[in-house]
Write a structure and sequence with these properties.
Elements lengths: L1 E9 L2 E10 L2 E6 L7 E3 L4 E4 L1 E6 L12 H10 L2 E6 L10 H10 L6 E7 L5 H7 L3 E5 L14 H8 L6 E4 L7 H22 L3 E6 L2 H7 L5 E5 L1 H5 L5 H4 L12 H9 L6 E2 L8 H5 L11 H10 L5 H8 L1 H6 L16 E11 L18 E11 L2 E5 L2 E2 L1
Parallel strand pairs: 1-4, 1-5, 6-7, 7-8, 8-9, 9-10, 10-11, 11-12, 12-13
Antiparallel strand pairs: 1-2, 2-3, 5-14, 14-15, 15-16, 16-17
Helix pairs in contact: 2-3, 4-5, 5-6
Bound molecules: N-carbamoyl-L-aspartate and zinc ion.
Zinc ion (ZN) binds next to loops.
Length: about 400
């Protein structure tokens, strides 16, 4: 397959190049590559298959909200060829057996699915047995019941889990008082960073919602941090429009805090959707979480079109950076020898977010009705086209 005449994201810049893919791998990047099986990418952006390091695909346990097929279709339609799935399932992914079973279930996915393993107060042996690529530790309450209770558990997991792999921390907490919440979250993060520093261990902070969280992480080379689009583009100003769908952890912040976070965007290492679909009935009962796979790239590109962010930085934070943080070999870059995972985007295509038209099983979006510029045109996974001309093959 030859992807011709596109503007290719290559070594941090957009350049006019052709890409030759053979046997699922990128074998050549150059000009005027000719041959059969041409994909015409003229006028399009050609990106490395995007990577979302924080999704909840809900299988097993809550397949009324999402499953590996619908969740992975949402991922592909949103330009993601690789996602890392969270462990707050039922049963939770906290044993080697649960991880293995989840791996089996994920075989129906249309994208690559990797897994975060969940830490508990007593699953140290299971962590060793499962030797997962990433460990997720909940230091504050959220959907599922996975928070560590024993104060010694964090240190023990820090010691046992391989130092070169990241431990992902969910630090946010919630109660009615937002100031109290934030104070507690910052305190948790500071303590977790201090401990990580003393042990030379890598940690990754999930879903930063304020500029301060980015600032706390930034001085430490072993600490990385992700930001989710809904904290960049939604605030408490949007609560009336969101109605019973408003709830998400961490909660949306004030418009002032949102603008501060947006202005500090460069400090974030990567973008993660925290795709957390719930049925509308569950939302009415107070379930927290937003679906985000199908709007993330378009929201980011729209902000680029408006001159707020720059394309190369956004794409790096959605491809190369998550691949490097989570040590995903062969992914996140368009380079010779890398996997043939490619996302082709029409950067000028305008579209309106309509929940009913999304691939996610939950069929709603917190961005309902917003007009975005930039849409995923085609997606190639391991050298095979899975999505073309805005539709699944
Ligand atoms: C997530 C979920 O529903 O699984 N919800 C959320 O509001 N972000 C849980 C989480 O990411 O903490
Ligand atoms: Zn999450």
């Amino acid at each position: 397959m030859i992807i011709k005449d596109g503007k290719v994201f290559f070594r941090g810049d957009f350049v006019q190049k052709d890409i030759l893919i053979e046997d699922g791998k990128i074998v050549k990047i150059g000009n005027n590559i000719s041959g059969e099986s041409i994909v015409n990418a003229a006028g399009k952006l050609v990106l490395p298959g995007l990577i979302d390091p924080h999704v909840h695909l809900r299988e097993p346990g809550a397949t009324e909200k999402e499953d590996f097929l619908t969740g992975s279709k949402a991922a592909i339609a949103g330009g993601f060829t690789t996602v890392i799935d969270m462990p707050n399932n039922s049963p939770p992914t906290t044993t080697a057996e649960a991880l293995m079973k989840k791996g089996e279930l994920s075989k129906k996915a249309l994208c690559n699915v990797l897994f975060h393993f969940g830490a508990t107060d007593d699953n140290f042996e299971e962590v060793k047995l499962a030797h997962p690529d990433s460990l997720k530790i909940y230091l504050g309450k959220t959907t599922g019941n996975m928070v560590l209770r024993n104060p010694g558990s964090l240190e023990k997991h820090y010691d046992i889990f391989p130092k070169d792999k990241p431990i992902v921390l969910h630090a946010c907490d919630h109660s009615e008082n937002e100031d109290e919440n934030l104070t507690r979250t910052y305190k948790t993060i500071k303590a977790a960073i201090a401990l990580a520093k003393s042990k030379g261990r890598k940690i990754h902070l999930a879903h930063a919602a304020t500029k301060k969280e980015l600032a706390l992480a930034r001085p430490f080379p072993n600490v990385t941090v992700e930001v989710a689009p809904h904290y960049l583009f939604l605030s408490t100003k949007d609560l009336p429009a969101l109605g019973t769908k408003y709830k998400v952890y961490p909660p949306l912040k004030s418009e002032q805090k949102r603008l501060m976070l947006l202005s500090a965007f460069e400090e974030a290492d990567c973008i993660a959707t925290d795709h957390a679909p719930h049925t509308l009935a569950d939302k009415e009962m107070g379930a927290a979480g937003f679906p985000g796979l199908e709007t993330s790239l378009a929201l980011m590109l729209t902000a680029c079109n408006n001159g707020i962010l720059t394309r190369s930085s956004v794409i790096k934070k959605m491809s190369e950076n998550p691949a490097s943080i989570f040590g995903i070999p062969g992914k996140g870059k368009i380079e010779e020898g890398f996997d043939g995972d490619i996302t082709i985007v029409d950067p000028k295509k305008e579209w309106k977010v309509k929940g009913s038209e999304l691939e996610t099983k939950c069929k709603w979006s917190p961005f309902e009705g917003k007009t975005l510029t930039g849409k995923v045109y085609s997606v190639i996974r391991s050298g095979k086209t899975v999505f073309e001309n805005y539709t699944f093959i």
